[in-house]
Amino acid sequence: MQEGTETTVKATGILGGIATVLNFGGRTIVKTYDIVTEIGGKTFSFIGKTASSIGSAVPNVFEGVKNTFSKIGSTKTRELKEKITEYEEKIKKLYYEIGKESSSEQKLESEKINELIAKVREYEQEIERLNQQIQEMAEIEKLKAEEAKKEKEKAVKKKIKPSDEQTINAIKSALDNTLKQASFDSESQREIFKKIASDLCDEEMEVRILASAELGKMGIPVVADVLIEAVKFENPYLIAEIINSLTNIGDARVLGICKDNVKSPNHRCRISSLRGLYKMGTDEDIAPHLIEALNDEHPEVRRTAITFLGWKDIADAVPGLIQSLQDKDDSVRKSAVTALANIKDDSSVLPLMRVLGDDNLDIRKKAYDALVSITGESIDFDINLKGKALNEAIESLKDWWQKERIAKINEVISPEPFKEPETSTEQITVQEQVTIQEETVKEVIQEETVQEPYVVETAPEETVQANVVTDEVTSIEQSTDTRQDEVADNASAFDAEWTEEALKKKLKTDLINMCKSKGIECDESYTKAELISLLLKG
Question: At what angle do helices 236-249 and 111-158 cross, to 10 degrees?
Answer without folding.
Answer: 50
